[in-house]
Amino acid sequence: MEHAMDIINTTNYDKDTVLRFQRFNARFVKRIPWSTQALFAFLTLSVLVGVFFAVCGRAWLYLGILVLALYVFGRRFYAIFIAPEKKFEQSSFAGLSQRYVFLKNCFTVCVDGKEERAYYNRLFEIWETPDAFYLYANARQAYIVSKAGFEQGTAEALAKHLRARVEAKKYKAVKR
Questions:
Q1: Residue 15 belongs to what H/E stretch?
Q2: How far apart are alpha carbons 98 and 11 in whole angstroms?
Q3: Which are the contacts of 17, defined by CB distance < 8 A and separation ≥ 6?
């Protein structure tokens, strides 16, 4: 049995923590460019202006094209930035708490008394933000380790520990 590295963290999956992760994931991991968001804002404004002119000038085709474009581009924006907040209360994440114990070659995750083990060398990538560590098990699933949740050890100690156990290209840090 491995001995703990004196790094223990409990992360509560409250609304802010989960939504911060989802926004981060959309922006950095899925790489939704700011240009897509700017285009969505422009289309929204265009539809509002288009409604005024369509009603005054009876330009219904123009309005229909703008609404269709807004729908096509807006679905992704809505799914990433708006729907998660609305759906959080019904999700399995609401009120979830995970306890992490970081060991030499792996870490354990305990949820509702059930423990699972994850190995550093199998992690897809690790992102460090000012608020949390996101340990991606694969391209679609990540463990959220809040920097505010350390019972033993510190965020700096965990960063050093993780950097020593994964390839340099897998560890990424963002300032904001």
A1: helix 15-24
A2: 5
A3: 11, 131, 132, 144, 146
Residue 114 has pLDDT above 80, yes or no: yes
Beta strands 125-128 and 132-136 are antiparallel
The size of the chain, in residues, is 176
**pLDDT tens digits, residue range 14-45?**
888 887 887 777 766 665 666 776 777 777 78
* Mean pLDDT confidence for 141-156: 95
Structure tokens at 1: 């049995």
pLDDT exceeds cutoff 60 at 109: yes
**How deeply is 52 buried, as exposed, middle or buried, from its count of CB atoms within 10 A (0-12, 13-18, 19+)?**
exposed
Identify each DSSP E strand in the chain by its residue range. Answer: 4-13, 96-103, 106-111, 114-119, 125-128, 132-136, 142-146, 150-152, 171-173
- Of residues 173 and 29, more confidently modeled: 173
116 beta partners = 109
Lowest pLDDT segment from 37-41, 108-112, 139-143:
37-41
User: Distance between CA 38 and CA 116 in Å, rounded?
Assistant: 41
| Integer Cα distance of 81 and 77 in angstroms | 6
